[in-house]
Amino acid sequence: xxxxxxxxxxxxxxxxxxxxxxxxxxxxxxxxxxxxxxxxxxxxxxxxxxxxxxxxxxxxxxxxxxxxxxxxxxxxxxxxxxxxxxxxxxxxxxxxxxxxxxxxxxxxxxxxxxxxxxxxxxxxxxxxxxxxxxxxxxxxxxxxxxxxxxxxxxxxxxxxxxxxxxxxxxxxxxxxxxxxxxxxxxxxxxxxxxxxxxxxxxxxxxxxxxxxxxxxxxxxxxxxxxxxxxxxxxxxxxxxxxxxxxxxxxxxxxxxxxxxxxxxxxxxxxxxxxxxxxxxxxxxxxxxxxxxxxxxxxxxxxxxxxxxxxxxxxxxxxxxxxxxxxxxxxxxxxxxxxxxxxxxxxxxxxxxxxxxxxxxxxxxxxxxxxxxxxxxxxxxxxxxxxxxxxxxxxxxxxxxxxxxxxxxxxxxxxxxxxxxxxxxxxxxxxxxxxxxxxxxxxxxxxxxxxxxxxxxxxxxxxxxxxxxxxxxxxxxxxxxxxxxxxxxxxxxxxxxxxxxxxxxxxxxxxxxxxxxxxxxxxxxxxxxxxxxxxxxxxxxxxxxxxxxxxxxxxxxxxxxxxxxxxxxxxxxxxxxxxxxxxxxxxxxxxxxxxxxxxxxxxxxxxxxxxxxxxxxxxxxxxxxxxxxxxxxxxxxxxxxxxxxxxxxxxxxxxxxxxx
Length: 659
What we know:
There is one protein chain. The chain is an alpha/beta fold. The protein folds into three domains: 12-134, Chitobiase/beta-hexosaminidase domain 2-like (Chitobiase, domain 2, 2-Layer Sandwich), CATH 3.30.379.10; 140-484, Glycosidases (TIM Barrel, Alpha-Beta Barrel), CATH 3.20.20.80; 490-656, no CATH class. The protein is 41% helix and 15% strand. It is built from 24 helices and 18 strands. The strands form three sheets. The chain has an eight-stranded parallel beta barrel, surrounded by five helices. α1 links the parallel β2 and β3 (70-76). α21 (560-581) runs antiparallel to α22 (593-612). The two termini are 52 Å apart.
């Protein structure tokens, strides 16, 4: 059963002995609203199918008044809410495919599953005989993209929406405002983009276009206007709304948490936000509106005498109480506009109404246990969404993210469980540009999408990784650039010389994890270069898992066969340094040479020792010194096979030392 490259894995799947061959006679028929979302999805399906198979389809396009090879039926068109039924059944017979769903969105999810089923032998492509019944585990399966720190053009968003739909994600959380930019056109307050966007923002027509595009894919769009903190951009345009009189506000160029904060004691703040939200909410039909509310340390509040007097007058003992006062005012405004307030978990305080949705993000790195704020929110009566564990900008392995169980071991009542709506992957953009963002989102997000959709029991990493390889390759079909842009960056680094030596190194290097690449947010800023070796590297280096398996196999059973499988790698790395040295007049390659040289020397020594089956104390001393060099960061990357090389050094010391 694990041979199918399905992701997310369906709830229920049964095999038959039949198969349906993909040939020129294949057609699609739709029993339902034939000109809506499913029609669009069906025509895209046919284009992708013919592209994959090379089959010249004769008619193909949704045929009317006859039964097609692929027969789609659904009961109603969804308005896209958290109540949308996305379940479906899929039956593949010898002569036809039958898709049934309660909504058009369910039918679209079935088409994505069917496309993932395309299989081939030497002579033909076919769909294997299967029966599938499927439905999502969680109703909220999102991806947040931050466009404030680095602006992402519309085409970047659309290709990522296509990718989201391909793995059955259904919420695009659009983080539009932060200290580094205000990214949406306001006709009421044009100063916001004139003074605080660097000219990089979406027009209202572009916003409508993206929302409509997402809707066609069965994806809801939830905007985020982050207040009262993260407000440098807003206050650059409207300093009179700030909490520190006389402070010179500027669009922030660095990353991190900054002091500029809206003044929650100023009536003009609420007048401004009500006018702004009144203009913006019609652009986003979804019921939910995210106000951020995170990382406000209240420093400027503490320094403002008038704000301190206001707190005393209204019996607001802490800045959390003051922010709750602010949030409640915003909830009233948003409710009047027909929206439900959503915010990061800092908004969850004693007096915050349970009508708010809590977005849980703080975890072990912020002093909380895993899932603590999520469970607390559910038990306190709030609907809640989880992002703790799914911060993909931290550049952790897919294994880390896939191993996160959204609910954990918490004991919840049925009502409390229902309040956990699902989860969101978060792509903060301090260190990404349109050139690199896809490689930071994909393919890891596909694996996380499986944890959001599939049953809890679908969590085996070893079964996931091979399927993820296939999904990763297929994402290129949708325009995702995570694979090809690696070579674009490497060609830029070498001034279009031979990039293969860099690829060999890149396949065993990863960017530094958990923000250590940009400690304190001070190394990189808005217009720093993001075309360096670390930007070409990805979170799961291509050769990491395989080399680890080879080393483990050798250490357990040091046979000639297991030794030879290691020798291939060692000889490659030994020679690669000389190839890298052939790249001339490329300053950005030079910082990698010490790492490459140490790796080459280590590989050469280990190859000799494994061949001779003996090691001298001098050689061990050299190896241990080399290992210290290899475990250090180089140009914001780490050599992820260093521990495996160290295992070989230890094995040599224990088994081949001269007496």
